[in-house]
Amino acid sequence: MRNPLYKRLKREFVHDLAKYIVIFLFLALPIALCAGYMIGNDSMIRTYDEAIGKYNLEDGHFQTMFALAENQIADIETAENIDVSYLYYKEEKTPEDHAVRIYKSSDRMEIDKWCVHDGKMPEANNEVAIDRLYAENNKISLDDEYKINDKTYKVTAVISLFDYSCLFKSNTDTMFNAQTFTVALVTDEAFNAISDDNIVYNYAYRYPERLGEKAAHTKNNDMRKNLNAYAHENGNMLTDYLAKEDNQAIKFSINDIEGDLTMMLIFGILIVGGLAFVFALSIKSQIESETGSIGTLKAMGYKNGELLAHYLLLPMLVTLLAGIVGNILAYTALKDYLVGLYYHSYSLPVYTTYFNAKALVFTTIIPLALVLLINVFILIRSLNIPALNFLRGNLRMRKDKKVTKLNEKIPFMTRFRLRVISQNKGTYIALFFGTFFACVILLFGLMMSPLLSHYKKSVIASQLAPYQTVLKADVPVTDEGAEKLYYTQLSYEKDDVIIYGVEKSGKESNYLKKLSLENGKVVVNNSLREKFKLKQGNKIVLSEKFDDKNYEIKIGGFLDNDGSLIVFMSAEDFKKTFAEGSYLVSYLSSEKLSVPEAFVYKTITIDDLTSASDQLTDSMGDVFLLFTIFSVILFVLLIYLLAKIVIDKNAKQISMMKILGYKTREINRAYNVPTGIMVMVSLVINTLLSQFLIKALWDIIVSMRMRGWLSCYFAPWLFPLIMAIGFVGYLVVYFIESRRISKISLSQTLKEGSF
């Protein structure tokens, strides 16, 4: 005989169609988002791993102040057992003051090869290939004219270089910059025609065979010291040494992709786990509304297992359908959209989509298991109640506690609302935690734009001077108002720290008026203090980048300066600490120095300092918008589901109130207003709690994954905005539920559940 319970499924589904549609969307959208990320990320990771061999990626590179002779290159190759390739480049400017790093295409035939996305490589002396992402950001197309210095080139190809998968101009930069910095390839003749004033003697190396992570680390440490000593012995200077593992231009993109994948998995599991809890509340509410029917069925001999299977069937079917639809969306439109977000941030080679079995497990199998386990637990507890209790409408296993008596001076409607809140406390607890999760996502999505604007203003306000010029040699500088600094870089906790030896500070300086270095005091800037939680009097040990020398400094004060990590000391103490020849000379000035370009190592302007915020705004804007939209939808759907549970649970009481003459408006005040009160209370508390969670996570993530420092900042207007969004979301639900209340029949209270 066919189980008559099956006949009820269609009626239950149609009756609660709106609820199941909302739950389906609530599940399908996160599943699609998580699966899309997993599929896209995994495909890009596999493409990245394959590209290491395909494009013959370097194991590292080093730079010297002067060119190495061929016999010196041969000595290094023999001594270190490596293959060294010439990768000289010239740092030039466009009329828009964009930095262009120009390489010979012939130097990249065997190492750090290019990937052509469109067009063909330069063949004539007036042709150039530029980075794809830079071209996209600056609206540059094939065959466009592109001016470098005073010469006009024709863009014949847009490319990506695997050693510049993330466009960091310098490894010490806080953030990459694909808006005003690009790499370019030209022919040998075109390269030689450019002045050597800004040439950088760069050499890429590869090991004869791939080394493991530990062996490569040991090898790089030894080789760095050996190259530094060899350069000094031959009257040269090692200006940079960077292993592949430490190169942000190579590793930042893949670290970000892998990190996002982990965060997205956690995000998806939390979403589905929360939904499973809502499912459980929904089913429990349904059981409470059908006590008479369930009591009759149990009395007729239906076992708990049969009832359990019946009440699990619809939630499991909805979850399964959401998983299928979510994965279809992931493999089609959403995967391409999410991958596009990465390609708008990074200069990655062309990728191939691969089937991802893990995505199916994490986004379909695990959600099904979560929904099953949580709902089975809730249902078993409910269905173990004796049949007689169901028939009496008493679903408590234990004797009811004495009802708390409310003061009769409290207005009747207020007492009624308090009773509604008390009777639905489980639902409102779920609302509280759901609101917390929505607030975290919403605050994160909304905070980024004002945070970056605030960071940009802070950097502008704290810039040392309009121009900071670092020289290759200590040549005479006669520019009026230029102030001399001594400059070197050390390492602290794997971060690059700039050390300045200051000749003029305080009242004597035109630029460092707030800096006090009296009595040999050492001052660190705000970014270094915040990142490592430093206090006055702390001692930190800084290390030389290219040998084993360490320097202990005691922090004597702080300077309100954001951006790079900086230590200031007097020029006298600086010269005592660092040997001559191990540092460079720098100048602060209000105008560009009148020093020949051949002597200039680099020039730092306000555009260089603010590039981090500009790049993040451009590359991550769509991601922030996606989080904001998703969190608003999540919040509204959550309120709708839980408000509906409250109304469904109290349908008979609402029907009785109608019989007693209460109008829909008055019933709304009794049942929907308590939900509104709990929504606003949850919003106030969770908006405050979410900022503490985000601040803690921000400090951890930025410390681990970002050179330099970007302080966490919440614009004051964010919290009123979140409250307003929450209130508007509640109003939408209020009007929807008001219509449902108006449709509840007056005879509802006289009916018993039927089969």
Give a description of the structure.
- This protein has 755 residues and is an alpha+beta fold.
- It has helices at residues 6-15, 17-54, 70-80, 132-137, 188-193, 213-233, 248-289, 291-299, 304-343, 357-383, 387-392, 412-423, 425-462, 526-532, 571-577, 606-649, 651-659, 664-705, 718-743, and strands at residues 60-64, 83-86, 89-93, 99-104, 114-119, 127-131, 145-148, 151-161, 181-186, 199-206, 238-243, 467-471, 483-492, 495-502, 522-525, 539-544, 550-559, 566-570, 584-589, 600-604.
- Strands 1, 2, 3, 4, 5, 6, 7, 8, 9, 10 and 11 form an eleven-stranded mixed sheet that branches.
- Helix 2 (17-54) runs antiparallel to helix 7.
- The protein is elongated.
- Residue windows where pLDDT falls under 50 for at least 5 positions: none
How large is the count of helical segments?
19
Structural class from helices and strands?
A: alpha+beta
Mean pLDDT: 81
- The helix content is 40-55%
Distance between the termini: 16 Å
Coarse morphology? elongated
Number of DSSP E strands: 20
Name the beta content range. Answer: 15-25%
Radius of gyration: 33 Å
Largest sheet: 11 strands, mixed
Query: What is the total number of structural domains?
Result: 4
